[in-house]
Please model this.
Amino acid sequence: MSDTENQTPEEKAAAEEKAAAAAKAKAEREAAEAAKPPWERDPVVPEWQEAEGDPLAEALRASFGDALLSARTFAGDLVLMVDRSSIREVCRSVKEDHGYRLLVDICGAHYPEREVPGFEVVYIAYNFEENRRVRLKVEVEEGVEVPSVIPVWEGANWTEREIYDMFGVRFTDHPDMTRILLWDGFNGHPLRKEFPVEGIDTGAAIYPEYYDEQAGPVAGSGTGWQPPKEEEPEDETN
Amino acid sequence: MTDPNTPATTPETLLGLEEMVLNFGPQHPATHGVLRLKVRLDGERIVDTYPIIGYLHRGTEKLFELHPFFQNVPHTDRMDYVAAATSNLAYVGAVERLTGIVVPPRARWIRTLLAELQRIASHLLWLATHAIDIGAMTPFFYTFRERELILDLFEEYCGARLTLNCMRPGGQPYDLTVGWAERCAEFIEDFPSRIDDYEGLLTENRIWKKRTIGVGVLPPDVAISYGVTGPMLRGSGIGWDLRKAMPYEAYDEVDFDVPVFHNCDTYDRYLVRMEEMRQSTRIVAQCLDKLPEGPIMAKRPRVLKAPKQSEVYYGIEGPKGEIGFYIVGDGTPNPFRCRVRPPSFFNLQVLPGMVHGQLVADLVAVIGTTDIVLGEVDR
Model:
């Protein structure tokens, strides 16, 4: 917008002075900010960093090569992206060779707006000796199965069932791939982003005589289940 | 000659001794809520147990995605509804790590104080229900008397007794009220003698020992492989406590011991929790002693936004085990995804293994010793 070439020398000097004053004020503000205790400063937002030289990431890269897609840290946590097909072998190695014996959690997340829409399955494991957690993540598209890690950690059974229940991601070789929190025959996977918060009426499963399979009405749309109208008996007194 | 295709007539079939399936719960006082177990029995012996959960599912993780970070704290109250303060603490801690907020010292100490009072309250409720399940009526009245005092302290601090909503991302909503510390100190001074009372009723009680020693054995390697944490893990000989391993809030500045017992049975888990109450008492006393002056709330934006493509997992030692939050942020004021790592969910998963081959009556003892809260299992 401003055209520096048309400025008079006075205006130029004034602008420079202004800039210097602004820089000084900024430096003063920063110094004052640094003198404050940390809880009065503006929060320092954590950022992603490449995990270079991390022993676990290096060891996994050496033994699995391309199956380890990326190794980064965020807020001090090591996050490893792993290829879906080799997640079980990577988990086994993480547990048996690197001592991450405790399975903290397995959870899912739905990312419908990514370039390749799909889900993430997140494995969190803990190492007692090094006192450290690691997060392994797998990207999976709709309808693709993830190898179950029950052979590695038996505790994965229920969490994998929960991910199936909530997201519809199935796990290969899972002995009991059924719903866990919702009832059998529930229509849909509630933690998917497109699932309505009001819930849906899964009439199809409960009232198969009224609705076709997968065709239960959606809650909030005014098409919820209505009890079937009984034919009123004819008034016989009149 | 007998035909191999027709079932042989054995004394068992004649007497009707084949296996029987018993539906245990979901409406049963000993299931501590709405847990349902399909139990296959051979006489009094348990052959197989299949837990069926989800009767208390309220879609909390979906609700987290609807509300801004500040407004999600009350949802955490309703997961482990007998230990709301520790759920609050895990959630606000995760949000603080996600957004880089640093909490002032006084708020950290108040949080430690509340979390430990909550641990005592939770263990008292566990002891009451566990003992009453096994048949000891008296501890129930004693422990509820003391739990009431803790709930009164909470009520005075934040106005609520169970669903506390007593922490915020960035610090504490209120300072301690006038005279609160004195009343808390009074309770803490008195409390160890009350623990002696409970132990006098149970620890050397012959019936109690008969019902708990050797019941519900959980070997340490099984416990680890199933992700069991908390007092259950410490009763199996592994002295792992997140308060020591990854100290948060003010735990690195207080002195306490982590009790460990090695027999892996119900009795040892009882001993662990009793000792934990004593240690919590110690921590509360130190908190009251060392409580620093100063602000209780950090500088925080009016609308808290998580950075884009951010994610964090943060776990703390709750009364029942590691309670953690995995939060994904996408640059909006709401969490994109908020996953709870409920300790009861993982601890309940080993139940079938622990009761295999035991008596039906022991099933009740083992459910008690796992200390589950179905609000947290089902979310």
In short: Residues 219-227 of chain A have pLDDT under 50 and may be disordered. Chain A has five helices and eight strands. Residues 186-221 of chain A form one domain. Strands of chain A lie at 48-50, 68-74, 77-82, 102-111, 118-127, 132-141, 146-147, 171-172.
